[in-house]
Amino acid sequence: MFSEKDLAQINKRGVDISEIYRQIELFRKGVPYVNLAKPATIGDGILCFSDEEINNYIKTYDNYSTNHTVIKFVPASGAATRMFKDLYLFLDEKDLSKFSSVRQVLERIDEFAFADELKALLPDNQPYTIIHYLLNKEGLNYGNLPKAFIKFHRYADGSRTALEEHLVEGAMYATCQTNNVLIHFTISPEYIDLFNDLVRRELSNYEKKYGVKYHIGFSIQHPSTDTVAVDEENKPFRNQDGSILFRPAGHGALIHNLNNLNADLVFIKNIDNVVPDRLKSETVKYKKAIAGLLVKIQNKIFEFQKWIDNDCLDDTKVSEIKDFYKQYLHLELTDTSIQGLKYILFRPIRVCGMVKNEGEPGGGPFWIFDKNGNISLQIVESSQINLNDSDQNTKFKASTHFNPVDLVCSLKNYKGEKYNLLNYVDPETSFISVKTKDGKAVKALELPGLWNGAMAYWNTIFVEVPIITFNPVKIINDLLRPQHLNF
To answer: If both were cysteines, with which of 62, 95, 174, 320 could 170 make a disulfide (CB 3.0 to 4.6 Å apart)?
Structure first.
């Protein structure tokens, strides 16, 4: 199947040939659907905080962060192209009557945080000119930039990009060890210079304003995590020069980036889910609250780990472990052997905020069965479910909550030793999609999603958080929602 030239290409990417064969086998046999047991709901998989618990958890986290390492991890490598889909269609068709969303952008252009900068570049005020200069290199070039560099919000002293809003958020809830703020962005390699320029230009201003010291890191999605693409016969797809086509494997590849961080606690939040300062208080409150819960869970699990390592388990301690898992993780532990308890206790922990489902498409919290009939809490995307199966469709539609990507994670055991996160991935939760390349159909494979199958074997806790903490910008018109306007 592979020539010497192919093997050289594969080797150069840092991929083992056995991994390529594994991916091709996935294409051939297909990725199995997730088997939903039931949706996670309040009291059955999802915790709900009282005001007293929120205050206590915030205090717990604030105390913890003074002598532990906290990192804010922000996936920010994706291009913003999909954000401007209708605008590109308008430029192709030049018929404004077909695109109400584009008309809204033009009618309310002055309300965008980037309006003044755009206007200064325009040679005229014709609709086509405005949209062209918004998207292309003659103007702001937003159609070719990641969301991180797009100005989201306007303030009296200037406008902020999405990246800058994460700097501000970091100062508000991710300070640690005497006002240090550690933030790690994943970015595309072609934007490294732009990223460095923005950080160098703005960082000192935010340090002075918030009285913190930033430590900004970044990483790229390594080519070794790209996956092989295949044709309709499940044979490696060839580029016009005969080389094998590899494609980026989605945000699931970032489990490698996360695995390289050295921190006691990691917040994860998408680049586009930020709000102006006037609305940040609820986000900060609940970020700290879920982090405080994680610290409580982590401390107790660390105690359990010590019991096992010190060989001092007895019936009373086993009962305490079982009661704890039932109360906070909603799990009935059946295997209480030493090996069974080691398996459940010695693994990463995540606390995930969940918002009430108000019709947003995408993933949510569910109880699922694995192939051995074991049940666990997972974040599941709709594409992982066989919606043609009436039973599965009914369970999916009964879901009450939605995944806003609001996570806080513990990546070490009680000794301070890092877990190898790659050992807790379920490889069978990949995604297969059909794309086109050079006018031909091509099948693409995405690795298990970062907060889906890439964290399948973590200790998982879901907590309800308010809808105001979820304000993503998926299309440019979302910036015209009241939550994103600062006046």
So the answer is: 174
